[in-house]
Amino acid sequence: MLVYPDYYEKFKCIAGACEDSCCAGWIIDVDDESYYSYQVEPGAFGDRLRNSLVVDGDQKFFQVTPDNRCPFLNEQNLCDIITEIGEDRICQTCTEHPRYFVVTGDYEQHDISLSCCELGRIFFYDDDPVKYIREETEEEETEEFDVDPFGDDEDAEMGYLDDDTEEFLYDPILLERVLKLRDEHISKIQDRTKSLEERLQTVLGLSLSNIDFDDLYHVLGNLDMNGDKCSIEYRWEKEFDKLLEYRAKIEDAAVRAEFQQACSNKFEIWFEKIATYFIFRYEIDVYFRLSELEKKSEDDDFAENVAIDFEEERRLINRSVAGIYIMAIQKYLEENKGIYTVDDMVDSAHLYSKEVEHSDENIEVLKETFDK
Questions:
Q1: Helix pair 360-367, 311-335: axis angle to 10 deg
Q2: Number of separate domains in the chain
């Protein structure tokens, strides 16, 4: 079974026309197949490829230039690898980004990250609830074990298949239970006969009218500020400083009500879709987490008996929805236009997603509990 959102097939990269290139701001991981093909590439361009590659233990990557760009991103914001030796020669990271994949047994889940501005426009300009397409895939012989997203390999943690990762027990019964609950949560979040506040509280235990600001600011302040793997550290630090500057106003209920009015009747639609996005993407993590416990369990009926607890995933989802919410309010207050547009919404979600969703460390911070 393959499941993906309706906007997935609408997306097409706009390359050099994009206002925020995904080829700048972070190192580019290079998969083994691409790495070895670059090692035998002839001529001056082959020398350039090899000179740009860095090997650090098991990790292979292109280091960014002093101006924070991929060494193959040219002045037209196009890729020299594509123009010189062809699109089929770019590495796996560049081929798949901003898409992500989760594969376990005969189940596949595909989606695209809101860190991509072009995807954000497709996502937020459509007022309809997100629809999920289900397709039967060709049946293949299912191995008893599959890829462990909790292994050391970063791609595996995002759901990519990699022979070097550890294995985990594939349990279709446990997976079915998790997916059924996940789909029920999405259905309830998308029930527009109820207010957004009621839906968020029912499904997630989240209230945007009663946010735990101390927790939210503490978590956002603990995200990686060193820019090791985070794509927009230069902008995130400034953004967090602005959140601190505007905190008193953001916490003012009258200001939040004013912001919602400034969204021109789109507020509930946008934040329903944001909640849906995070539920679809992250609630499946509980399956992998419980699979780790199942390996150590002596209960033959573990899959049927274990309680499906979304507590960790809920912390991530709730903090993400609330985090994008306060970033949106801060942008509205700073720009002082009297209106918050769909393009503003695209930018706020993009900024949050690019900082958080491409850093395993930041994802773990969002899932953690903190002493108060």
A1: 100
A2: 2
178 and 83 in a common domain: no
Give per-residue pLDDT as tens, 253-280: 999 999 999 999 999 999 999 999 999 9
Q: Which of 50, 70, 96 is the last residue of a domain?
A: 96
Query: How far is residue 288's CA from residue 338's CA, in Å, rounded to a whole number?
Result: 45
Domain with 32 in it: 23-96
Q: Is 87 within a domain?
A: yes
Residues 336 and 246 in one domain: yes
180 and 53 within one domain: no
Rounded to 10 deg, the angle between the 253-262 and 311-335 helix axes is: 80
How confident is the model over 100-147, as pLDDT tens digits? 889 998 999 999 899 888 999 999 999 999 999 999 877 655 444 343
Which of 68, 96, 124 is the C-terminal boundary of a domain?
A: 96
| pTM (predicted TM-score) | 0.83
pLDDT for the residue numbered 213: 97
**Coil, helix or strand at residue 301:** coil
Q: Evaluate whether residue 154 is within a structural domain.
A: no
Give the tens place of pLDDT for each residue, 166-179. 455 688 999 999 99
Using CA atoms, how far apart are residues 101 and 111, in angstroms rounded to an integer? 7
List, in order, residues 6 or more apart from 161 with CB less than 8 Å away.
103, 147
Peptide bond into 42 cis (omega under 30): no
What local confidence, expressed as pLDDT, does residue 100 receive?
84
Residue corresponding to tokens 């969703």: 357
**Residues 6+ away with beta carbon under 8 Å from 218:** 370
Cβ(62)–Cβ(30) below 8 Å? yes
- 261 found inside a domain: yes
Identify residue 335 by its one-letter amino acid code: E
Determine, yes or no, domain membership for 230.
yes
Residues 62 and 203 in one domain: no
Question: Which residues are bridge partners to 146 per DSSP?
Answer: 168
Q: Identify which has the larger pLDDT, 162 or 247.
A: 247
Mark out the alpha helices in the chain (DSSP H runs): 32-39, 43-52, 80-85, 92-96, 117-125, 154-157, 172-189, 196-204, 213-221, 233-245, 247-250, 253-262, 267-282, 285-296, 302-305, 311-335, 342-356, 360-367
Q: Are residues 228 and 337 in the same domain?
A: yes
Structure confidence by residue, pLDDT tens digits, 307-336 = 999 999 999 999 999 999 999 999 999 999
